[in-house]
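Quick one: structure for this chain?
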Amino acid sequence: MTAPPLTRLAITMGDPAGVGPEIIIKAARLMREAVGSGEIELAVLGSAQALAEAGRALGFDLNGEEGRLLRVVDVGPVDGTVVTGQISAVGGQWAYLAVAKAVQMCMAGEMDAIVTAPLSKEAMHLAGHPFPGHTELLAHLTGARDSVMMLAHENMRVSHVSTHCALADVPGRVTPQRLRRVLDLTLDALRTLGIAQPRIAVAGLNPHAGEGGILGKEDGERIAPVVAEYAAAGEAISGPYPGDTVFIKLRAGQFDAVIAMFHDQGHIPVKLLGFHVDPATGAWQAISGVNVTLGLPIVRTSVDHGTAFDIAGRGVANADSLVDAVQYAIQLVRGRKAAKDRLESKELHA
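Got it. Here's what it folds into:
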């Protein structure tokens, strides 16, 4: 059997004052076999000092045998000291520089995908980079237009029409043009993941999908006509469905993805399933799930959680979401390559 091709992953540390350094060390250990077999290469971009400190706390010697699991790319220098667990402009600058370097490496063909550990929006703003989050920063750095956030956990895949904006601004962002863009990118992503005929449900904006216009007219006037267009073109797209039931249908396997109209509508069901809590103590046992940015010229996946400043440096952070993000990135890289090979073969024999 032919070994899978090497996938080179640029893992950005995120804010070094958060759990990023710790979960990268833990994820590297969990992916030891994949690295050792030559299936993946892990390059960590960020503060080499922060990674070394996390390594010492976890008994991971970057200069020893385990250190071969990671290639460290320090993106500094950055003036100032990182204080674990504290929001600061210093941490925000490290996070920004790591993402910028990762984009540069991927655009140059040096790496195949970016996998991001969490950053702090507040810290990044303090550092003078006023982006609402990773999604918008990556779109800016790559020159992409209308990027789309998709969250994934097991069979739950949810793309968002709007994300980081005030709830009052959401109706104005639910336009036919934006909905078409989200549908196109979601269809492409699902096919890249190996789903030949994706089934997509579109959630309504208003309660009960507008209740025939009684609770809002956007569902009938903006969303339903676009859904009808795609259905008429042969795509398995339906809706709008009430937001309080459509995710149950997705969980039941009736659809491959849902299009959510706003941030919390899509995030809550995915995170409710992805965050595992010990019922006896209320403590987090594990966090799984992946954030994928669609519409970029490069592959980017991310953990589906924040910097967790409150537990940073304590050695209790869970790396499952980062491992999930790496695995999703590998699938997307391989899927894109397979699609490119098919196209080139078709053109060769045309």
